[in-house]
Amino acid sequence: xxxxxxxxxxxxxxxxxxxxxxxxxxxxxxxxxxxxxxxxxxxxxxxxxxxxxxxxxxxxxxxxxxxxxxxxxxxxxxxxxxxxxxxxxxxxxxxxxxxxxxxxxxxxxxxxxxxxxxxxxxxxxxxxxxxxxxxxxxxxxxxxxxxxxxxxxxxxxxxxxxxxxxxxxxxxxxxxxxxxxxxxxxxxxxxxxxxxxxxxxxxxxxxxxxxxxxxxxxxxxxxxxxxxxxxxxxxxxxxxxx
Amino acid sequence: xxxxxxxxxxxxxxxxxxxxxxxxxxxxxxxxxxxxxxxxxxxxxxxxxxxxxxxxxxxxxxxxxxxxxxxxxxxxxxxxxxxxxxxxxxxxxxxxxxxxxxxxxxxxxxxxxxxxxxxxxxxxxxxxxxxxxxxxxxxxxxxxxxxxxxxxxxxxxxxxxxxxxxxxxxxxxxxxxxxxxxxxxxxxxxxxxxxxxxxxxxxxxxxxxxxxxxxxxxxxxxxxxxxxxxxxxxxxxxxxxxxxxxxxxxxxxxxxxxxxxxxxxxxxxxxxxxxxxxxxxxxxxxxxxxxxxxxxxxxxxxxxxxxxxxxxxxxxxxxxxxxxxxxxxxxxxxxxxxxxxxxxxxxxxxxxxxxxxxxxxxxxxxxxxxxxxxxxxxxxxxxxxxxxxxxxxxxxxxxxxxxxxxxxxxxxxxxxxxxxxxxxxxxxxxxxxxxxxxxxxxxxxxxxxxxxxxxxxxxxxxxxxxxxxxxxxxxxxxxxxxxxxxxxxxxxxxxxxxxxxxxxxxxxxxxxxxxxxxxxxxxxxxxxxxxxxxxxxxxxxxxxxx
Lengths: 242, 546
Known about the structure:
The structure holds 2 protein chains of 2 kinds. By secondary structure, chain A is mainly α. Chain A folds into 2 domains: 2-40; 52-240, Cytochrome Bc1 Complex, Chain D, domain 2 (Orthogonal Bundle). Chain A contains 12 helices and no strands. The model of chain A has no long low-confidence stretch (mean pLDDT 94). Chain B is mostly helical. Chain B folds into 2 domains: 1-73; 74-527, Cytochrome C Oxidase, Chain A (Up-down Bundle), CATH 1.20.210. Chain B contains 18 helices and 2 strands. Chain B has a two-stranded antiparallel sheet. In chain B, β1 and β2 (256-258) form a beta hairpin. The mean pLDDT of chain B is 95.
């Protein structure tokens, strides 16, 4: 072996080939099967994709770096299930690009945040967290009251559809209208949002003002959708009850 | 001597051509995107390209053609630039680090502008120190080491500049993008898609330069430091390309969606993330250690066999370890178990490296006592051993159930990055700066001693406070009262962190103070450059002109 290495280290391209070969094994063994084993991700029938408004909110969540302090992955540990709800399933983030599982909980996990607080609480909390939680160390985000830029909504849906998220061509062409309608229940096409994305989708003035579409609308809509895209985890938890 | 004077006329002309190409590319990006971050980034590239045209164009006829005797010397001008950039990024990256640390117990310590918000500043800190500080140090020292250990001059004079300037443009695009709200959100891979493509081009140039220089070596064997630098260059390329595969939302927008989703995305991200630690923050710096520590101690590496064992162990085992970031998650159990197993086995090659480095100091311990520069390298090897032990320990599933998501992980990372990575870089910088600027010594030798103690004290305060924070928080999260209910609300566990967050800011501040002292010391040394040359520090054979 030593003699072999003695000779290998005289050939630079040999060393290059050996490094690539040796380094590739781990990734191939661990990652490749994740794409072929069906059980890795069983997509539940009731899973819905994010609406254009929620997706816009998700992009704001990413833009502001929320994932640096908040995880979206409840581990299968008793205290986490007691604190946050049923543990997260792979299927729940099956269409998440990128996944936002997170690696640090400076703040609590958000995987099942949807419906836990009112819209008004979220707005107040995002404007200044210390108004509602006095010792909070979360930053304030007053600039979220700016109007939402809707110019990329269609392209976002189209890109995700190309990658396999089941957005129909109607959803794509109506992306901007759906985003406006979801934040304004008075809009004539407000009912269409639920027709396209399901009855469980919330259609409300998330920021408290029907007249304008803000980044706050989008982010709160996204936060309220967390954990509500499928009931699979709750069904599984019920089945597990003795 | 000005950097442009080291290039021949034809090299200067080619350089102008490349700079024009960069300016045109930047203009095309800006014109196509019209508004938004991509347009600003295009504008930055254009300004940089035009500035380079002026610098090179102005110098085109200013300097005489460098003599043919240049080929009998090593080419160090780009290395000097790389060292200067390393120091600039150190101050930026660590400075922002202390800022975000302060924000964690004093959230109002920042103006209410979007770009000074914690979530946008944090990746500026991580990318600034990893890619800005660490990356520039790795590229600069690798080009220094490959020449010395091959006894050959760099294969050409232009491509090292392309690599260093292009790489710094990538870093600048990345951090300025975060401030303006553009991020892919993948940890340590946050830069936008076009910056990722740009980095691939720069990296291929870097690899070509490195391998061509190795091909010219006058030594039959490739020295062990170069194996590590090679592994760093190759594996980082593989990781970077696969983890960053993404489809832009629009070709004229910085936004993109990764082609991987959900659990596969998580696995690929942490396969990347952990091996960014392995091949960016470990392999490359082990290359640095394997050159600068024996040279400074004037002792040969203790064991050749052990270096072979640890090298291939690190290259093989590390690539399996990423899934330990995903214990108890929706990732299939068997992948988690494999990740844990290989993380524990990784202790063998890691301690073999650390032990080999420390045993090399046998017979030179009096130098460790007297020479702060060598002491930086010794402490680096010790922290390397400690943090790899801690890493293997934290990868064990039940330990991870307590430590994951807490500040223990952050403390662990900083024991590696402050104690190991930054210490070895400072050791290398203090060895290199006097040499590269033609002096016997640093301008302020006493300041090196001060820096050493500031760095050690800062690291210890930082790491110990976050150990306490992480273990406290992990335990509070899982404490039940007699009625079987959780004892603490989440916000109570946050409140318990505040004293530790204050202490860690202090530790970070001490470390930053040391880094600033280092930057000032280096600046003073550079300004008082001498003309001292080491007659033995030359390529073995005169290279034929191209």
